[in-house]
Backbone:
């Protein structure tokens, strides 16, 4: 397989005549290109049932030992790290599209969430976090004492 390199005029120089807009667009593109060192926001599916909440986080290529799930002050935090694959001697990258870096996502949990009853499992690049709901307070009848 052959790889052909070709030069293409900069889209930013030919499309946007305003130098201020061109500068802003270039800055934004540079931020996107440096995303491999920034925090990555994993995609999440969330569901609610009568018994609790289920959140599924996409963490492709992340090692299970780098996954951390914290629940503190009503906030659920998920952190993980995906390392960049090292190149072998004599090997060079042609292009890299998969993002390496720190995954981070936080959710404020509702008051009905039981922070003491959280379970997490990880399989096939998907982290599943289950948060049980606190049983609703039941009304109870209070006995009234009659004083003498």
Residues:
């Amino acid at each position: 397989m052959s790889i052909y390199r070709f030069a293409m005029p900069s889209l930013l120089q030919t499309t946007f005549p305003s130098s201020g807009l061109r500068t802003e667009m270039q800055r934004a593109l540079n931020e996107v290109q440096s995303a491999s060192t920034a925090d990555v926001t994993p995609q999440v599916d969330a569901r609610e049932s009568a018994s609790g909440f289920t959140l599924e986080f996409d963490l492709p290529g992340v090692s299970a030992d780098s996954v951390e799930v914290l629940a503190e002050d009503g906030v659920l935090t998920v952190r993980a790290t995906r390392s960049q694959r090292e190149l072998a001697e004599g090997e060079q990258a042609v292009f890299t599209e998969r993002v390496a870096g720190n995954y981070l996502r936080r959710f404020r949990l509702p008051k009905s969430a039981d922070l003491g009853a959280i379970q997490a499992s990880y399989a096939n690049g998907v982290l599943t976090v289950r948060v049980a709901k606190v049983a609703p307070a039941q009304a109870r009848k209070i006995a009234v004492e009659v004083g003498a």
The mean pLDDT is 81. The chain has two helices and eight strands.
